[in-house]
């Protein structure tokens, strides 16, 4: 059984009232035209870039590490663009939670479905390899509105936010499983023709990871995907969601499957997976979540990459 959080009377207790008041703003945003939301995001992102220096530092540092060929001015512009798209995606959360299906279909475009259907026609199951782009939630919606899906879910500390995020991800029937439930239910669902939405770029620490290059920087990477694909008889399709400002749409792309993903060599499998994620990042560089501490865990003896 999936275990995404369900609504309970506890969420109505006074200690959560401020959360409900704050989140009600997102419901109001969901009623506005995207052009209005986008304009508001532009203003708020300028404030965020000026005052949220910690996130700006992470974005700038990560971009500089991953794109050493870019000038300081180019890195700064990418960081500014990222803060805008990050702010924009937060304001769009109300759409994920409350927008009716017909509106979601108007603002989400799924590309690559013909590739997915071709793999299925060959008797293959499908794992959609996602990563922390700002449009991640819209990738989940694009897939789950069209296919039966399953995926892992990490609980959030605030129970109201936790319920809303889980509601957004599962509103079209996604089966969500916690990390404590392990891989077995995900494997079972995938073998039964559900698409596995696999979020692959989390840093879970050295004990659970191997180090593999990500844009030529060693990154702690969980080396599970090769074995998972093998057990499920599945192809792995990189998947990315990019917001198109001109068309006011989230374009969700399923890319051709990764070739020869190793099930025996953990470092090779992690390297192949990271290369595939790099490919999705390049689809819309500013929309990857550069504000995360992507390279927090370092190989033994190596200093932090985020020291001032």
Short structural description:
By secondary structure, the protein is of the alpha/beta class.
Radius of gyration, taken over Cα atoms and rounded to an integer in Å: 19 Å
Helix content: 40-55%
Structural class: alpha/beta
Poorly predicted runs of 5 or more residues: none
What is the oligomer described by this structure?
single chain
How would you characterize this protein structure?
There is one protein chain. By secondary structure, this protein is of the alpha/beta class. It contains twelve helices and nine strands. The protein has one domain. The strands form two sheets. Strands 1-9-8-2-5-3-4 form a seven-stranded mixed beta sheet, sandwiched between helices. It has a two-stranded antiparallel sheet with strand order 6-7.
Quick tags:
308 residues; alpha/beta; seven-stranded mixed sheet
Layout of strands and helices, then pairs:
Elements: H1 17-30, H2 34-51, H3 53-66, H4 72-91, H5 93-98, H6 101-107, E1 108-111, H7 113-121, E2 125-130, H8 136-144, E3 149-152, H9 159-170, E4 175-177, H10 184-191, E5 195-199, E6 210-214, E7 217-221, H11 225-232, E8 234-244, E9 249-254, H12 266-283
Parallel strand pairs: 1-9, 2-5, 2-8, 3-4, 3-5
Antiparallel strand pairs: 6-7, 8-9
Helix pairs in contact: 2-4, 3-4
């Amino acid at each position: 059984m999936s275990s995404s959080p369900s609504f309970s009377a506890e969420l109505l207790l006074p200690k959560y009232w401020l959360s409900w008041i704050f989140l009600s703003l997102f419901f109001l945003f969901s009623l506005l035209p995207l052009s209005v939301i986008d304009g508001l995001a532009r203003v708020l992102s300028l404030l965020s870039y000026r005052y949220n220096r910690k996130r700006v530092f992470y974005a700038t540092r990560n971009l500089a590490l991953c794109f050493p060929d870019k000038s300081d001015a180019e890195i700064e512009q990418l960081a500014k663009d990222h803060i805008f798209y990050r702010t924009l995606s937060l304001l769009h959360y109300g759409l994920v939670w409350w927008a009716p299906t017909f509106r979601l279909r108007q603002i989400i475009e799924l590309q690559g479905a013909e590739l997915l259907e071709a793999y299925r026609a060959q008797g293959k199951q499908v794992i959609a390899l996602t990563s922390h782009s700002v449009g991640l939630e819209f990738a989940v919606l694009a897939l789950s509105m069209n296919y039966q899906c399953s995926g892992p879910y990490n609980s959030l500390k605030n129970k109201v936010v936790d319920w809303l995020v889980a509601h957004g991800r599962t509103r079209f029937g996604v089966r969500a499983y916690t990390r404590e439930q392990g891989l077995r239910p995900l494997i079972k669902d995938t073998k039964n023709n559900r698409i596995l939405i696999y979020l692959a770029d989390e840093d879970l620490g050295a004990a659970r990871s191997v180090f593999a290059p990500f844009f030529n920087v060693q990154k702690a990477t969980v080396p599970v995907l090769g074995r998972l694909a093998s057990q499920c008889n599945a192809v792995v399709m990189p998947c990315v969601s990019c917001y198109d400002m001109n068309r006011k749409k989230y374009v969700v792309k399923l890319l051709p499957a990764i070739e020869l993903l190793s099930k025996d060599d953990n470092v090779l499998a992690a390297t192949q997976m990271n290369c595939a994620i790099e490919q999705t990042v390049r689809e819309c560089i500013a929309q990857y979540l550069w504000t995360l501490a992507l390279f927090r865990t370092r190989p033994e003896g190596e200093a932090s990459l985020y020291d001032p």
